[in-house]
Amino acid sequence: MNASRPEVAPAAGDLPFEKALEQLEEIVRRLERGDVPLDESVAIYERGEVLKKHCEALLKRAEARIQRITLGADGRPEGVAPLDIS
After folding, report:
1. Beta bridge partners of 67
2. Which of 18, 25, 36, 68 has its CA 20 to 30 A from that of 11?
3. Strand ranges (E), the chain
4. Domains contained in the chain, CATH given
């Protein structure tokens, strides 16, 4: 992404987690610098919101796929169960 003018960004839903997070971090850096014109700040903030929601959705899907191995009384693996992260 060009520091003075953002390029046309791909739809957030098309980005893998790592790329979406990278873009989100760049948006945060630009906004924290405070040297972005107001109209552009609003636009990149809105893009950041979309990227944040996309990252959260990808993380939720990954968490739902994680399983823990259950052990029998003898300590041997006996199956899997959903990971309880709460």
Report:
1. 82
2. 36
3. 67-71, 77-82
4. 15-69 (1.10.287)
pLDDT single digits (tens) 40-63: 999 999 999 999 999 999 998 888
CB neighbourhood size of 73 (10 A): 6
* Cα–Cα dist 41/25, whole Å: 14
3-state helix vs strand vs coil in the chain, percent to 5: 55, 15, 30
Nearest residue to 46 (alpha-carbon basis) of 29, 32, 27: 27
Measured CA distances, 47 to 1, 12, 23, 39 (Å): 13, 9, 9, 13
Convert the pLDDT of each residue in 3-14 to its tens digit. 444 455 678 888
pLDDT score at 4: 43
pTM above 0.70, yes or no: no
Instruction: Report the C-alpha gap between 35 and 49 in whole angstroms.
Output: 20
